[in-house]
């Protein structure tokens, strides 16, 4: 009897011990029978690191007919942790509220909506103040917009005192999110946005930790989660890719799907939606078929109206335009520093007459 192993591993499962014995030498007929019986038994519901089943047991009998609900077209499916990222002021918060309220009210969005029963939706707003939110969803003529009673907006409580009980801010937020899920019973969450939840000098690590825990919470409670994120300043002449996600493109590794909201460089005010990652469905809205949309507020509800489809290349900044804008920014910067037109021309290699026109246009 190996007393050393028994002391180190007092709770090692019997089947593991048998497998170890098998590795050290041939099992007796009695041991083989015992191991076979134990491996055939249903696995207990425990906190072990791995869950093992026969491959066939992972397949549902109705798998061929099963298709997850489309919460926002082919961009976001039920049961997914999805990332929506865009530049500042592109309108991602507007789109998120529009999606959340549509799901809560069971009112399908044009083009990308699905007929689904109403459900409770939690919208965690870490961006807007109460006054800013009210301004978006009200007007002097039409008053306040009437949101679905299933749509909830949550903000951080400045008087909360529980953070000191946790090792770091990420653990505090994970615990708060899980408590909210349990108490409300909601299964659809929108977080706006993950950038605001990152703190300290290791912001990227904090965001990755939060995404990892969101994935775990999602799987445990059967959630659908949409997480909003920023893009840093990017080259408007290049297509949007996963590398444009601010902080760390590794965030997408923890997501089931991701899509981006881009600004058209050829039509002021026009935006486009592009699929970046998908697991549950196919890529219908890639670079050759982005979904065009525009922000509108005809009454008291600011929202996106969908206008068709196009190639992303048609809405990127052309190279000459990019060069022109760069030159104008360079001239303006030097002019603000007090340099003369002659000095700016010498510094940039642009003719004095062109510099003079740029300065005049301001």
Automatic annotation (TrEMBL):
Pfam families: AAA_25, HTH_38. Residues 330-362 form the Transposase IS30-like HTH domain. This is Helix-turn-helix protein. It comes from Mucilaginibacter auburnensis.
């Amino acid at each position: 009897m190996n007393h050393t192993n028994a002391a180190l591993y007092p709770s090692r499962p019997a089947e593991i011990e048998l497998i170890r014995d098998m590795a050290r030498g041939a099992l007796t007929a009695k041991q083989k029978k015992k191991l076979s019986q134990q491996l055939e038994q249903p696995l207990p519901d425990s906190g072990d690191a791995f869950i093992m089943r026969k491959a066939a047991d992972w397949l549902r009998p109705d798998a061929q007919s099963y298709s997850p609900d489309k919460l926002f077209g082919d961009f976001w499916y039920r049961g997914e942790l999805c990332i929506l990222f865009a530049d500042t002021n592109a309108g991602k918060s507007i789109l998120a509220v529009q999606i959340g309220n549509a799901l809560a009210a069971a009112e399908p969005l044009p083009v990308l909506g699905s007929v689904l029963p109403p459900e409770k939706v939690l919208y965690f707003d870490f961006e807007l103040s109460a006054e800013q939110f009210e301004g978006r969803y009200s007007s002097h003529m039409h008053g306040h917009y009437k949101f679905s009673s299933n749509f909830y907006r949550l903000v951080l409580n400045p008087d909360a005192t529980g953070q000191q009980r946790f090792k770091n801010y990420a653990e505090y937020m994970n615990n708060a999110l899980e408590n909210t899920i349990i108490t409300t019973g909601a299964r659809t969450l929108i977080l706006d946005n993950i950038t605001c939840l990152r703190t300290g000098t290791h912001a990227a690590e904090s965001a990755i930790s939060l995404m990892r825990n969101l994935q775990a919470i999602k799987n445990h409670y059967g959630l659908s989660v949409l997480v909003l994120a920023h893009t840093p300043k990017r080259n408007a002449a290049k297509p949007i890719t996963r590398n444009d996600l601010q902080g760390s493109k590794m965030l997408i590794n923890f997501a089931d799907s991701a899509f981006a909201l881009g600004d058209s460089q050829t039509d002021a005010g026009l935006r486009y939606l592009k699929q970046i990652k998908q697991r549950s469905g196919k890529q219908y809205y890639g670079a050759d078929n982005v979904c065009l949309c525009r922000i509108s507020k005809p009454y008291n509800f600011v929202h996106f109206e969908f206008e068709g489809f196009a190639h992303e290349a048609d809405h990127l900044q052309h190279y000459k335009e990019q060069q022109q804008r760069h030159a104008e920014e360079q001239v303006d910067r030097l002019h603000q520093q007090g340099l003369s037109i002659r000095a700016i021309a010498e510094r940039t290699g642009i003719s004095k007459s062109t510099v003079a026109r740029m300065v005049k246009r301001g």
